[in-house]
Specification:
- The chain is about 5% helix and about 40% strand.
- By secondary structure, it is mainly beta.
- The protein is elongated.
Length: about 575
């Protein structure tokens, strides 16, 4: 029982219920909605934000600086971490990556049309948000800069300061201020009313589906705007709502007593929500909802081809996962039951127990066991087959059509459509995290180096590269010749390029070379000179050596360079 809270603000625009006493955990072990829907998420978000902005991750010797901070939502996170793709607070950019450096400057790559180029210059940005085709970056003073496709919110961002968070539909942004006021923007020939945000203050959070927004106030009242058929109108009246969930074109909101109200397109779950109380959480596919009770029973509604019917009977389910067309529910013993479209994960779920988490692409599932083994099912085109057969995997990431699994040693195995990252994953170890667009993966190492694969047009290659002026060179004995090296893009830290002369057919060195060059944020785009000196010997033979390069640091650790073949011309015959 918590005493003397009485509407105390516990996070920006988040207050405890207006009562003197309330129960944190009842005798059955059920947590209060104030705890699960307000206090804990608010504090978790504040802690995560603090750690990301100040210390990064904590290593064995203390805090380490986070070298990159990717956009707040990438495709894999939206697909796997929010109980349904449309439940994510913002939509991921499908065709470009954007990431913050420690100084708050931004690097973007991928489709130039959708934000992969023309990121804002300067420093001081703290977070990046996205729609399917644009980005919006927030500074510490609450000012916003947007870029990418104007049809997806890449222009006309609000001026001024004081914004604290940005949300999105698939093609529009809505920014929240500390006072709870909202500004939305969107540029497109066919208006759906997405820019018509409510006036006034006091809103604490914004939810969205493809075509509409719904904003919640501290008293639990809801205001919606956007396409009316998709939930932009007819939001429930009254107060006491605690959280809102989404399919592609509908919303469903939960009250503290576990009752549900839905609105929006009836084919997408906007009607026929279950009556009664006791529901604790709602999950979604593209067109259907599935609500879980405290006893682990499930009720589904919405498009029948999307899992809106034939939910499993019985109790004991602890969590539900989804593809676009199907659900998969997990029990405490690790057994799985799936339903929905049979071609896209709704059937052929693995038997047995011991599964701990389920991940998904657009139309396939992959389940992980405690020993790190993986079982996949659903459309083989989307990664539903050919999962790795060994063990030791700790986490799985996804694009729209492919999976990538990470091991404790930082090695990666990918499967699914090769055009979307299902092949050509990087070899080696040391990768710590993977991000994705709909089409590509980007794997990060602790030193800040990034390796991308998948669609080269949509983020599957980074712009990190090194230009060298020569791959062949000729030098006389006792003389010098040179070539230059320059970085193609500003690094996140110092980059060292080391050179080694590997003589061919000789036990002694026939040429010496500048041992190393260092590029910084200040000189990265200034070509530096490598000097090769021919070594005088007593024979009358021409010789050859190969200059081998290695690159470390600054995000360039996985960039390869061509060797330089050097012909050393003997001068003994002329002396």
């Amino acid at each position: 029982c918590h005493q003397n809270s009485n509407n105390t603000e516990i996070a920006p625009n988040v207050n405890w219920p207006k009562s003197r006493f309330f129960v944190h955990v009842d005798e059955q072990g059920v947590l209060s909605s104030a705890l699960t829907e307000q206090f804990l998420p608010a504090r978790a978000a504040l802690l995560k934000d603090y750690l990301q902005k100040t210390t990064g991750t904590t290593g064995p010797t203390g805090p380490t600086v986070e070298k990159w901070r990717f956009a707040e939502m990438d495709f894999s996170s939206a697909r796997n971490d929010f109980d349904g793709f449309n439940n994510a607070p913002s939509y991921s950019n499908h065709h470009a990556f954007a990431a913050l450096k420690a100084d708050g400057s931004i690097t973007a790559w991928g489709s130039s049309e959708y934000g992969g180029s023309n990121a804002p210059t300067g420093t001081g940005y703290t977070k990046i948000y996205s729609t399917l085709g644009a980005f919006a970056a927030l500074k510490a003073d609450g000012s916003i800069t947007a870029w990418g496709s104007s049809g997806y919110g890449g222009s006309n961002a609000p001026t001024g300061t004081g914004y604290t968070k940005i949300y999105s539909t698939w093609n529009a942004f809505a920014a929240l201020k500390a006072d709870g006021s909202i500004t939305a923007w969107w540029v497109r020939s066919k208006s759906r009313g997405l820019a018509n945000a409510p006036t006034g203050t006091g809103y604490t959070k914004i939810y969205s589906n493809h075509y509409a927004f719904a904003a919640l106030k501290a008293d639990g009242s809801i205001t919606a705007w956007g396409e009316s058929d998709s939930g932009g109108s007819n939001a429930p009246t009254g107060t006491g709502y605690t959280k809102i969930y989404s399919t592609e074109r509908a919303f469903a909101t939960l009250k503290a007593d576990g009752s549900i109200t839905a609105w929006g397109d009836s084919d997408f779950g906007g009607s026929n929500a279950p009556t009664g109380t006791g529901y604790t959480k709602i999950y979604s596919t593209g067109d259907a909802f599935a609500a879980l009770k405290a006893d682990g029973s499930i009720t589904a509604w919405g498009g029948s081809d999307f899992g809106g019917s034939n939910a499993p009977a019985g109790t004991g389910y602890t969590k539900i996962y989804s593809t676009y067309y199907a659900f998969a529910a997990l029990k405490a013993d690790g057994s799985i039951t799936a339903w929905g479209n049979s071609d896209y994960g709704g059937s052929n779920a693995p038997t047995g127990t011991g599964y701990t988490k389920i991940y998904s692409t657009g139309n396939a599932f992959a389940a992980l066991k405690a020993d790190g083994s993986i079982t996949a099912w659903g459309s083989s085109e989307y990664g539903g087959s050919n999962a790795p057969t060994d063990t030791g995997y700790t986490k799985i990431y996804s694009t729209g059509y492919a999976f990538a699994a990470l091991k404790a040693d930082g090695s990666i195995t990918a499967w699914g459509d090769s055009d979307y990252g299902g092949s050509n994953a990087p070899t080696g170890t040391g990768y710590t995290k993977i991000y994705s667009t709909y089409d590509s993966f980007a794997a990060l190492k602790a030193d800040g180096s990034i390796t991308a694969w998948g669609s080269s047009k949509y983020g599957g290659t980074t712009d990190f590269g090194i230009t060298q002026s020569a791959t062949t060179l000729s030098v006389d004995e006792d003389s010098t010749n040179t070539y230059t090296i320059v970085l193609d893009k500003q690094p996140i830290g110092d980059v060292t390029v080391s050179m080694l002369s590997d003589s061919i057919g000789s036990s002694t060195s026939v040429a010496t070379v500048t041992p190393s060059l260092t590029f910084t944020n200040g000189n990265w785009n200034t070509p530096q000179t490598v000097t090769v000196t021919g070594v005088k010997d007593n024979d009358k033979n021409n010789e050859q050596t190969v200059i081998i390069h290695s690159v470390t640091g600054g995000g360039y650790g996985n960039v390869s360079m061509s060797n330089v073949v050097v012909d050393v011309i003997d001068t003994t015959a002329y002396n």
